[in-house]
């Protein structure tokens, strides 16, 4: 049976799984689980993933969730996946595992918390939380610094000094790409101090094109929509201010 991917492209881990499948020629059916419409809370999806999160996969009778576990499974279960994605060499594989374990409690926690509480929360029916955003920003900066000084240490273009990308590169770069929904000046303020991180991101994009750009297209659409909403809000505020000023002079 054909592999089924349950994803929302606004989800960083969903994008990593999608890109991995496309780059490696894995045949799959993409099934959208719209987070904004809260489709992940539907009883039908709970049968796929009781944690009610994306991504999740169904391969025949086998069900699996958590993106890192999915990437490991895909790399091992499907023939033709290049070894550099998840090396058979135990030492190299263990190093990749260390990056993946670090990812969720550091980079993901920082980036996701910051983006949610500065930009995306209203779209999900949540309130912006400046305190949480500040905490997320602090962890995000610390995580980017560690990527640059530890994981990108050496002459290789990718994590752990590798000359080719692994599932860790894909997971972490997709995470950082979520910053694209921020205002340009905010994104640049965060990323510009980390030149090695920026170059590594570009190298990962090139290694996975054209699938990387196509899968991330939704971020730029969302960003354009948010900018339009902000512009309308600013214009409405200006018009209201002018109206109030005129009324006070009458």
What can you tell me about this protein's structure?
This protein is of the alpha+beta class and 250 residues long. It folds into two domains: 3-81, 3-Layer(aba) Sandwich (Glutaredoxin), CATH 3.40.30; 85-214, Up-down Bundle (Glutathione S-transferase Yfyf (Class Pi), Chain A, domain 2). The protein is 61% helix and 7% strand. The protein contains ten helices and four strands; from the N terminus they run βαβαββαααααααα. It has a four-stranded mixed β-sheet with strand order 2-1-3-4, with helices on one face. α4 (90-120) packs antiparallel against α5 (130-151). The radius of gyration is 20 Å and the shape is globular. Residues 237-250 have low confidence and may be disordered. It is an enzyme of class 2 (transferase). One of its GO terms (biological process) is toxin catabolic process. InterPro entries: Glutathione-S-Trfase_C-like (IPR010987), Glutathione-S-Trfase_C_sf (IPR036282), Glutathione_S-Trfase (IPR040079), Glutathione_S-Trfase_N (IPR004045), GST_C_Theta (IPR040077), GST_N_Theta (IPR040075), GSTT1/2/3 (IPR043377), Thioredoxin-like_sf (IPR036249). Its EC number is 2.5.1.18.
Q: Supply the CATH architecture of the largest domain.
A: Up-down Bundle
Question: CATH class of the largest domain, please?
Answer: Mainly Alpha
Derived from helix and strand composition plus strand pairing, the structural class reads alpha+beta
Largest sheet: 4 strands, mixed
Q: Kindly estimate the percentage of residues that lie in beta strands according to DSSP.
A: 5-15%
What order do the helices and strands follow?
EHEHEEHHHHHHHH
GO molecular function: glutathione transferase activity
Keywords: Detoxification, Transferase
GO biological process, one term: toxin catabolic process
Pfam families: GST_C_2 (PF13410), GST_N (PF02798)
């Amino acid at each position: 049976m054909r592999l089924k991917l349950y994803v929302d492209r606004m989800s960083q881990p969903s994008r990593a799984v999608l890109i991995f499948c496309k780059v490696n020629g894995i045949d799959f059916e993409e099934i959208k689980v719209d987070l904004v419409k809260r489709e992940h809370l539907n009883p039908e999806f709970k049968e796929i993933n009781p944690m009610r999160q994306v991504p999740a996969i169904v391969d025949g009778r086998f069900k699996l969730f958590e993106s890192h576990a999915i990437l490991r499974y895909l790399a091992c279960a499907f023939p033709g996946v290049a070894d550099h994605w998840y090396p058979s060499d135990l030492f190299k594989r263990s190093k990749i595992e260390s990056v993946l374990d670090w990812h969720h409690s550091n980079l993901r926690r920082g980036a996701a918390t910051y983006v949610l509480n500065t930009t995306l929360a209203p779209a999900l029916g949540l309130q912006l939380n400046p305190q949480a955003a500040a905490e997320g920003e602090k962890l995000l900066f610390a995580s980017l610094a560690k990527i640059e000084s530890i994981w990108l240490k050496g002459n290789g273009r990718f994590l752990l000094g590798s000359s080719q990308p692994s599932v860790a590169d894909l997971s972490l770069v997709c995470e950082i790409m979520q910053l694209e929904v921020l205002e340009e000046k905010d994104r640049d303020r965060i990323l510009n101090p980390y030149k090695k991180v920026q170059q590594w991101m570009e190298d990962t994009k090139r290694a996975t094109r054209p699938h990387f750009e196509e899968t991330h297209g939704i971020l730029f659409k969302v960003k354009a929509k948010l900018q339009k909403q902000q512009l309308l809000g600013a214009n409405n505020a200006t018009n209201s201010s002018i109206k109030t000023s005129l009324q006070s002079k009458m």
